[in-house]
Known about the structure:
This protein has 6 helices and no strands. By secondary structure, it is mainly α. It has a single domain (about 1-120), classed as NusB-like (N-utilizing Substance Protein B Homolog, Chain A, Orthogonal Bundle), CATH 1.10.940. Helix 3 packs across helix 4. The longest helix has 29 residues, at about 30-60. It is globular and about 40 Å long.
Amino acid sequence: MLLFRVEFNSPEDMPEQVKLFFEDEERSDAADFAESITQRYEKVLEKLPELDALLNEKTEKWNTKRIGKVELTVLRLALYEMLFDDEIPEGVAIDEAVTIAKKYGQDSAGAFVNGVLAKFVKKGDQNS
Length: 128
């Protein structure tokens, strides 16, 4: 995941990281796939300061510097989808984030991610 690489590389190194990310892809639609993923990555990256500020505001006793890298990446992407991507339903963004966190994060990552994202659920959507 490109967004995860942001935590380990300088902004100057990210164009090379993007290139490396797609070198291993063996898909018939590789060009379209690369363009789509790159555009999405750039949109999320553009919003990182805002996303991190929101996460820092909602997480008690935690901040983006203390959150594990996997969990932080998952939270950033899910929050972006919840706030700025009208094509992805809020519930789907949360479900996918929790699934990824459980698979790749620490033992309690799924519950942590779910708890943080629940704080961002729109009031009208809580009962649906």
